[in-house]
Amino acid sequence: SAVISQKPSRDICQRGTSLTIQCQVDSQVTMMFWYRQQPGQSLTLIATANQGSEATYESGFVIDKFPISRPNLTFSTLTVSNMSPEDSSIYLCSVESGREGEKLFFGSGTQLSVL
Amino acid sequence: QKEVEQNSGPLSVPEGAIASLNCTYSDRGSQSFFWYRQYSGKSPELIMFIYSNGDKEDGRFTAQLNKASQYVSLLIRDSQPSDSATYLCAVKEAGTASKLTFGTGTRLQVTL
After folding, report:
1. Which residues of chain B make contact with A33, given a CB cutoff of 8 A?
2. How far apart, in whole angstroms, are the C-alpha atoms of residue A73 and residue A29?
3. Across the interface, do A43 and B41 touch by the CB < 8 Å criterion?
């Protein structure tokens, strides 16, 4: 499986500010995925990031709130913009691996608290 | 809306016993099924995957799939305190590359 490094590991932010989360993979991957895990809940896919094209957002998530960059095949960023306490969550970067790219592996996550 | 359902628990089993974790899913066309283990404050870790009906064994873990009943389970034999974690079931949608739907997870507690 790929080694996925994510930073920051945690942050406490003020309402109205923005935070950019970075994800670095040790091998080239076509797609990178950003998930959110709110307290006590399961994982929800925010968007899929392909290199060289616009990210594809899931229902309920928009680019203005969660802009994503994918400058190359090993790196992506997710920005949480104009934060509110409802954005307090764990944000996870993930990539596919396996013979047919069928398995999903996660980075270490970013624990975000918004005051 | 495609759903993956799990009992939230906690499921409490004594050390050395078999833990049985269950998951049902709504999309009959689902093709791939995964179990993730998540320790508190950590990210999910893939521990088992299964694609065909029947059982798949890996060490102390056995995944069981019954597509007719839309049911997948995870058995953990000889449960250890280190197995105490939340176990997430995930189902891959048919026809959609790499899109997983996760259940809310079952919290397992292995007691001494």
Report:
1. 98
2. 5
3. no
